[in-house]
Specification:
Helices cover 63% and strands 1% of the residues. It is an all-alpha fold.
């Protein structure tokens, strides 16, 4: 992994001057995540050119300054700062201090259960950015300051964009995950036009008839198996909604659990199943608020069986050439998840993402912001 680590550190240095979000809306900085995913796919020589294209595709806010206003030893201090994006610089400074004093796994294990109830933060980009940083750190014996800073930024964004979803997941039901998905109410929320309006809707999810029952329906299982069921089923959800806009919203129902899988080996075992439970709440909220159809299981399996798709090596090459950050991360996640538990829906969904998403690094963000 020596070349991977070298490329990763070079990429992190190139994007260190970018803030947490892109101008024009609450759109997460994807540069470190996209660059790391390209490196994992083995396209080392494409990382630097992709970063340059990404930087020209969408402007970013400047990195914020912090004032050390969050006291990690004072629970009321840090809890009151959760979800306060104006304190994202303070969060970054807090995590930088802790990572300078302790091994990164110790810091991660302490904060993970505090942050997972807000796993929807930044449309899941907080946990995803954190996971990409963890994969980089786990590949080396001695982490660089750039890698530790990236973990601090990932957790800071997660904390500052913290979004709590109501409801309880105990995995004490009797249903398979696919059956629980089929029973979720579908609202579509056409009246919600921006992130703030969706957040208000998500805060009232438990008031939707049938939502809590569907949330509690899944039976317990090994966390790793549940993650595989999640990614396969929601790859199918993505595949079965070819006209859904914006496509990246449903992509996160796959990339987030695939990201969490990268982190679980570095956490205490007792944190694994609760983490998967928070992912299920996120997926349920996404599906309830962004879709109206219920026939994903049958439709996706039919599509996956009928559509000719290239192999994953070709899909990875096409994703990197395509350039869109969501397509790259989604394809990398599908490659990795399929290797663990093969399912035709992964390749078909990755191929569909290539077709449905505008080409070019940063293009998706620009279209969402401008509507062009």
């Amino acid at each position: 992994m020596d070349r991977y680590a070298d490329i990763l550190n070079s990429a992190l240095e190139r994007v260190a001057d970018l803030g947490f979000e892109r101008t024009g809306g609450e759109l997460a900085n994807h540069a470190p995540m996209g660059a790391e995913a390209i490196a994992v796919l083995g396209y080392f020589d494409e990382v630097a050119p992709w970063i340059e294209r990404y930087r020209t595709g969408q402007e970013h806010y400047d990195p914020p300054e912090g004032s050390n206003r969050i006291d990690a030893a004072d629970e009321s201090s840090w809890r009151s700062a959760l979800g306060s994006f104006g304190q994202v610089g303070d969060w970054e400074q807090l995590f930088r201090r802790e990572l300078a004093d302790e091994p990164w796994r110790a810091v991660l294990a302490r904060w993970w259960p505090r942050l997972t109830p807000g796993i929807f933060a930044g449309m899941t980009h907080g946990v995803i950015r954190t996971a990409h940083a963890v994969r980089g750190l786990a590949s080396v014996d001695e982490p660089s300051s750039l890698q530790l800073d990236e973990l601090a930024r990932g957790m800071a964004y997660w904390a500052a964009r913290f979004v709590h979803l109501p409801g309880r997941v105990g995995f004490d039901g009797t249903a398979a995950l696919s059956d629980a998905i089929a029973t979720l109410p579908r609202r579509g929320l056409p009246e919600a036009r921006n992130v703030e309006e969706f957040q208000r809707a998500w805060a009232r999810m438990d008031q939707i008839p049938g939502y809590d029952a569907a949330l509690r329906a899944p039976a317990s299982a090994d966390p790793q198996r549940l993650l595989s069921e999640m990614t396969a089923e929601f790859a199918g959800v993505f595949l079965a909604h070819p006209d859904f806009v914006p496509a990246p919203a449903l992509v996160h129902a796959v990339t987030a659990p695939a990201a969490v899988r990268l982190v679980l080996p570095h956490l205490p075992a007792e944190q694994h199943l609760p983490s998967v439970g928070e992912l299920w709440k996120m997926q349920a909220a996404l599906l309830t608020t962004f879709s109206v159809g219920r026939n994903e299981r049958e439709a996706s399996r039919t599509l996956a069986a009928e559509v000719e798709t290239p192999g994953f090596g070709e899909l990875a090459a096409r994703a990197v050439e395509h350039g869109d950050e969501h397509v790259i991360k989604f394809t990398e996640a599908c490659v990795r998840e399929n290797a663990l538990r093969p399912d035709d829906r992964y390749a078909a969904a990755a191929a569909s993402a290539l077709q449905r998403t505008p080409r070019g690094a940063g293009v998706t963000a620009r279209r969402i912001v401008t509507g062009s």
